[in-house]
Here is the input.
Amino acid sequence: MSDALVAIENLTVRFDDRLAVDRVNLSLHRGDIITIIGPNGAGKTTLIKAILGVQAATSGRIMRAKNLVIGYVPQNLSLESTLPLSVKRFMLLSGQPLAECESALARTGVSHLISTSVHHLSGGEQQRLLLARALARKPDLLVLDEPAQGVDINGQATLYDLIRQLRDELNCGIIMISHDLHLVMAATDKVICLNQHVCCSGHPADISHDPAFIETFGQPVAESLAVYHHHHNHSHDLRGNVVGDGHEGCQHDHH
Amino acid sequence: MTIIDAVLNDFFWRALIGGLGVALIAGPLGCFVVWRRMAYFGDTLAHSALLGIALSFLISVPLNLGVIITSVILAGALMLFSRNKTLATDTLLGILAHSALAIGLVALSFMPDVRLDLTGLLFGDLLAVNRNDLLWIYGGAVVIMTLLCVLWRGLLMSTIHEELARVEGVPVERLRLVLMLMFALVIAVAMKMVGVLLITALLIIPAATARRLARTPEQMAAMAVVFGFIAVAGGLSMSWHLDTPAGPSVVVTAFATFLVVYGSAGRFSVAR
Here is the structure.
């Protein structure tokens, strides 16, 4: 436990009379990918803001590793149209040298946009730019708030693939919020289903059978995820390495 | 020294030098007003300046200082009130702006000994600038330009994305406070020249004009300074030749420049 990047104990955040996050425990190590899912208003964003240190906790503790560098990918970049800004300038504002910025852009596949105005990027390009900006800081911990928002369905799969590859390259920990249940289930090690409190958590394959999960998301969603796992989840082991390409590699119980 | 003395003894040159000094700081600060959608906030601070003047007479401090003090108090009050979200920010600003202006006017009417050129305060008296005013303007300009240069990256980053800036270790709250202090300072030094009702115009119009041509934030700030210079120089000549009030003439020139740039920019530049 001592080598955790972030460890949360009994974290509670309360806004006036509304409980946003209720006694959440969580720890994240290098190489982990944790995905937070949950209905709207479940406190997902509040939880990651507390992890980022921009939201004060009402009670409980958040411990961060010493000199932890956090790369943050916000939900979107709603830039005021009166502010002229190129991709290059936006990257350089991170304070990193140009070479770092350029290679980060190349890694997320948007280096051709370097002299484009940020205002002219599509939703997917914007997400990749934000991801590149987080990468340029060489983070120990990558925090993503709905990274695939505004990205088309093919792009979403590639984006989650990229996030998983980055975890291996940087050996960082990743925590993200997502609504894209199917895609997330394939890309993550651990899912936390949040509804103020942690209603259930665990490996994606197990969680879809959890009564608490079924209660929160409904039987149809849970069933569709279970089916999905049967076909696809086995192609990667817990570290994200490919462990086989067909059904004979499947390690999970089938129902 | 004699040439400088001769220049500073001429009211027209004093007005020009003072006006250029104000335009120099209003340019980059005006960009932040535009980027952060603080136009109405700037207006509110400016309106409170009259209250500041009344206060200065009451506790006998220099006018500029009184204005800075009230602006800072008002900015602080706004920050406090806006946490309690029962009233929309624009409603809150409207209440404070006009109440501050009205209280200032009422308070001044209780001071019969104070003889004050009210029109000059409301609309500015660029041509009544004295050497002491020049000292305030250029002192303020040095302070503001130094702060802007040192804090530029942090200010820009927290304008682009506040949370991202915070995660990257930018002291967002402290910078917001510094920015408000700079607004208070620019209003205090510019008040006498353009008047409390027209200060926001000098902040916003040159910056908005620059937006049409600029490709980077720095370009926009620099161009806003240039458009501010044009407005001041043009407005003063207009006032000199046509005998129009100086402050409004400066704003009219700024507006004309804005129209010209937006009307013709399509031909030689692309807004980005």
